[in-house]
Amino acid sequence: MSLDNGLYAPDQSGRELLKVAMPKGRIYKVASKLFREAGVPIPTDFDDTRKLIIELPEVGMSFIMAKPVDVPTYVEYGVADIGIVGKDVLMEENKDVYELLDLGIAKCRMSVIGMPDWKPAINPRVATKYPSVASQYFRELGQQVEVIKLNGSIELAPLIGLADRIVDMVETGQTLRENGLVEMETIFGITSRLIANRVSYRMKNEEIQSLCDKLQHAIAAKASV
Ligand SMILES: Nc1ncnc2c1ncn2[C@@H]1O[C@H](COP(=O)(O)OP(=O)(O)OP(=O)(O)O)[C@@H](O)[C@H]1O
Ligand SMILES: O=P(O)(O)OC[C@H]1O[C@H](OP(=O)(O)OP(=O)(O)O)[C@H](O)[C@@H]1O
Predict the structure, then answer these.
(1) What pLDDT does residue 209 have?
(2) Which PANTHER family match (predicted)?
(3) Which residue stretches of 116-164 are H helix?
(4) For 141, phi and psi rounded to 5 degrees?
């Protein structure tokens, strides 16, 4: 397949650009800041662009602006060498990729949530954007539940009687408070991770390792403030 879009163009020294799958939305805001702190100058005018492929030959990288949930797929198939993705998506998608680095950004947690007066139901139903994570969690507890996949506004489900509990992300807790819901259990903590395609990790090891080192320094510098 021949694609003349700059993704496969070489940098000044003739090397192919490192292809980075960058999630749009929430994570982009904090990830682009971290990259800048790590010495990868993503121009601020990219923050509002509708462009889907952004080349930065001066730093040897091109960015694929992706829907967050698609990042592991791009990386598994090697159309992106590396990517940034929340641990939530990584757990749900379960793709064959290397997890290289915890970037420590976009922190939140995956939790079981319900009404304050929740009681075990005969046929319990759990609504979530993360059916695989939720099914595994309840299976390991030995609890039989029906998992209902939704795509957003998950907190509605217990309010309108679709499900008696939900599995969803909690960050500040504001959505729960405003809807009279309570966090019943935390399943795992979430931060964004740097992931790599298995072949790219071998073939472009020097570039990937160099980026990891820079990011690690930026993360450590933040932690020491
Ligand atoms: N409060 C939060 N709610 C949801 N995700 C959060 C939160 N804080 C951090 N995150 C991280 O951000 C990612 C979601 O980002 P974002 O909301 O931009 O994507 P999205 O859910 O695909 O958005 P949408 O479907 O609304 O376009 C999650 O995968 C998670 O890792
Ligand atoms: O604890 P908080 O700070 O309130 O954040 C948690 C909320 O944020 C996310 O929703 P999002 O804004 O992504 O909208 P969505 O319902 O469309 O998924 C998540 O699904 C929770 O609803």
Answers:
(1) 98
(2) ATP PHOSPHORIBOSYLTRANSFERASE, ATP PHOSPHORIBOSYLTRANSFERASE ATP-PRTASE
(3) 131-140, 156-159
(4) -80, -10
Q: CATH 3.40.190.10 occupies which residues in the chain?
A: 18-106+191-223, 108-190
- Indicate whether residue 115 lines ligand 2 (CB < 6 A): no
CA gap 79, 159 in Å, rounded: 41
pLDDT in tens, 47-88: 888 999 999 999 999 999 999 999 999 999 999 999 999 999
CATH number of 18-106+191-223: 3.40.190.10
Sign, CA dihedral 159-162-165-170, equals negative
DSSP string for residues in 75-108: HHHTSSSEEEEEHHHHHHH--S-EEEEE---S-E
Nearest-CA residue for ligand 1 atom 24 is 25
Measure 202 CA to ligand 1 centroid, in angstroms: 30
Note the CATH architecture for domain 108-190: 3-Layer(aba) Sandwich (3.40)
Asked whether 170 lines ligand 2 (CB < 6 A), one says yes
Distance 149 CA to ligand 2 centre (A): 15
Per-residue pLDDT tens over the stretch 98-110: 999 999 999 999 9
Q: Of all helices (H) and strands (E), which one includes residue 177?
A: helix 174-178
pLDDT above 90 coverage of the chain, percent: 87
> CA 135, 138, 140 angle in degrees (round to 5)?
105
Residue 104 amino acid letter = G
Specify the 3-state DSSP secondary structure of 144.
Answer: coil
